[in-house]
């Protein structure tokens, strides 16, 4: 997300919160049920809960504020007396949205991208996932992920960052990584770090013991056909310069970089950069401000991710496993 987008979102959030406060204050003041100062305190508390409380409730309250702001604008524009009776929809509709979001986050979709390249010696079939965020990952979803990928007979499987986050318990981390290590591919399992899961020695050992090769500004030649180059995360102070990592490589490159930041004049041998990080917004309407999908001009694919950060809710896009097929031409 650019600084401009971040400032726009901050501005919209401030305006939304203000309008929501005005709407709830005016409604209850008109009904003479609650004093204005007490209602203001209650709404401010809701705003704080949205920002600080890690649960589905915080997502619900975010939508309560959004719908109250929308209601306030509509009420002021149309001044329809029947709108007064629909005030409580501002609290009911968010319940429906959050329930659908909890259901949606459990669904796994396959998204397939078909590319072509003249420099590889044979076709490539691979799968990658990003942003698993195992702290909110259910056992059933993990089982489906492992089964779906194993049944496809891919050349390689990649976890493209943020498997772990600040809420992940160590016992679950080890258990999930061990399960992911049972995925079967022709040429192995690979891992690059994300902004949440900067690796320590213990986490790195969980991955390597389960069969993952961790690529930290390192490349590996796959089947004498292409290089898989994994970057350290953008926030990692030890992250190197991309050109210094590619100049000795003499075959096509698939670049793994958790955050979708594409450098100018990227090495022409890079077939595609595979990224995640954005969750495609996760919570609507954030997806309008964040990268997702295939950007042919940038040779970039951005996944919406498997999991959900902070809250197990997804109201923007869907959780996905990304399949990348590269055909030799």
Question: What overall form do the CA principal axes indicate?
Answer: elongated
| CATH topology category name of the largest domain | Purple Acid Phosphatase, chain A, domain 2
Kindly report the spatial arrangement of strands forming the biggest sheet: 1-12-2-3-4-5
The succession of helices and strands, N to C, reads: HHHHEEHEHEHEEEHEEEEE
Helix and strand composition category: alpha/beta
* Annotation, overall tally of beta strands: 12
Please give the structural blueprint.
Blueprint: H1 3-31, H2 36-52, H3 56-78, H4 89-106, E1 108-117, E2 124-129, H5 139-150, E3 156-160, H6 170-180, E4 189-192, H7 201-209, E5 212-214, E6 218-222, E7 226-230, H8 242-246, E8 253-256, E9 270-275, E10 293-295, E11 300-302, E12 319-328
Parallel strand pairs: 1-12, 2-3, 3-4, 4-5, 7-8, 8-9, 9-11
Antiparallel strand pairs: 2-12, 6-7, 10-11
């Amino acid at each position: 997300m650019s600084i401009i987008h971040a400032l726009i979102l901050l501005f919209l959030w401030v305006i939304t919160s203000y309008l929501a406060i005005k709407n709830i204050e005016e409604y209850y003041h008109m009904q003479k049920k609650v004093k204005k100062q007490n209602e203001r305190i209650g709404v401010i508390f809701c705003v704080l809960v949205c920002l600080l409380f890690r649960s589905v409730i915080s997502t619900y309250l975010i939508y309560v504020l959004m719908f109250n702001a929308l209601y306030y604008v509509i009420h002021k524009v149309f001044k329809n007396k029947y709108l007064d009776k629909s005030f409580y929809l501002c609290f009911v509709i968010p319940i429906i949205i959050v329930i659908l979001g909890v259901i949606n986050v459990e669904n796994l979709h396959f998204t397939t991208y078909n590319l072509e390249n003249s420099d590889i010696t044979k076709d490539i079939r691979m799968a990658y996932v990003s942003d698993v965020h195992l702290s909110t990952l259910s056992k059933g979803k993990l089982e489906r992920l492992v089964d779906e990928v194993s049944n496809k007979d891919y050349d390689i499987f990649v976890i493209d960052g943020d498997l772990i986050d600040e809420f992940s318990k160590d016992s679950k981390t080890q258990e999930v990584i061990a399960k992911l290590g049972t995925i079967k591919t022709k040429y192995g399992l690979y891992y690059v770090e994300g902004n949440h899961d900067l690796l320590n020695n213990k986490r790195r050992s969980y991955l390597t013991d389960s069969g993952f090769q961790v690529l930290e500004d390192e490349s590996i030649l796959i089947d004498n056909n292409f290089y898989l180059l994994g970057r350290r995360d953008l926030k990692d102070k030890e992250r190197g310069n991309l050109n210094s990592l590619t100049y000795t490589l003499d075959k096509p490159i698939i670049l793994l970089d958790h955050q979708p930041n594409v450098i100018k004049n990227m090495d022409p041998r890079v077939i595609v950069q595979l990224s995640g990080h954005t969750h495609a917004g996760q919570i609507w309407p954030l997806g309008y401000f964040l990268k997702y999908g295939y950007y042919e001009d940038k040779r970039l694919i951005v996944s919406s991710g498997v999991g959900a950060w902070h809250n197990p809710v997804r109201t923007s896009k869907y959780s996905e496993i990304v399949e990348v097929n590269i055909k030799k031409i």
